[in-house]
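Quick sanity check, Arf-GAP with dual PH domain-containing protein 1:
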Amino acid sequence: MAGGSERSMKALKEVWRRAENSLCADCGKPDPDWASSTLGVFICLSCSGIHRNIPSISKVKSLKMDHWDDAQVQFLAKHGNAVTKATYEAHIPIYYYQPTYNDCQVLREQWIRAKYERKEFTEPGKQLPYSDGVKEGILWKRGRDNGQFLPRKFLLSEREGCLKYFTKQDAKEPKINVKIDVINATFQPVKIGNPNGLQITYLKDNKTRNIFVYHESGKEVVDWFNAIRSVQFHYLKVAFPIASDNEIRNRLTRNFLKEGYMEKTGPKQREAFKKRWFTLDHRRLMYFKDPLDAFAKGEVFVGSRENGYSVQKGLPSGTQGNFSWLYGLTIVTPDREYLFTCETETDQLDWIAAFTSVINQAMTPQEYAIEAYFKFKS
């Protein structure tokens, strides 16, 4: 902390040490070392970069390297994260996704802009672009066969409880019509190759189907994301009238537990191991030839430990079949063992941790039904 009087530096440290200021006000990252001298919040380096892009609203300075005068320190002391949140986060809809430091740039940027620039949460009952139960517009969708992104009309309807898309703007019949309760949406900028890339998945005949979309506007694609969550929330409120708002919120869109490449062999465990892209979506382990495939080549149900499921480090002794990656793991189910290899030990341990987190959870009645379907299918 360079410059400034000793008194100012001491006062700044005291405000900085308050428990309310120990996490970034915007993403929750521990130990923020930047602050906004105009908003009075303590933020991390990453969020400070977003604040710097809205200079009419927020002026950011380093708590370690920049000079803070007495007036600025007093402003921070008067405000801080708790007071500022009480104003700018006073009326966040229960379904609105509040990103963390693990989330992508577009989610964090639009969250910050929604709070401070557009002031979307300062008043109760404010009409928001994702809250009125219907949303219609153009998203660029990746073609299943040719891989090209083309503009497609999407329509989300709370009244009908579904999401539709049309191949032509004037088309009367949709290409798909998906019930809102089988939809998931998660941002995938790296996989899709666009900073605003969104992956929408849904179940068709109990099989997972992927749609990859983006929009040039970060605000528009995040509005679509929260509109889906809004429609889902109101649908589930009707379907589960005794459930609390927090219970329903936990059933809205979710991030995948883990994704990445592994090698796998077939059920006879003598075939050559093949490299595949894997996605663990809670109890569904799906594998694809390519990360952007519309349909999975196969799915594995991952149940609970009390029902005979486990994950083991390494492959069974005497495993046949050629594999190029040396770090193996085995998923044990009541019916068979699934063998995989990972490229690095870190990947192996990360996958084992992800599987363990699922297996250690008790199964819900709905998950027992899904397990029964997988057993019937096999």
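Posting the structure with no commentary besides this: Residues 218-239 form the longest helix (22 residues).
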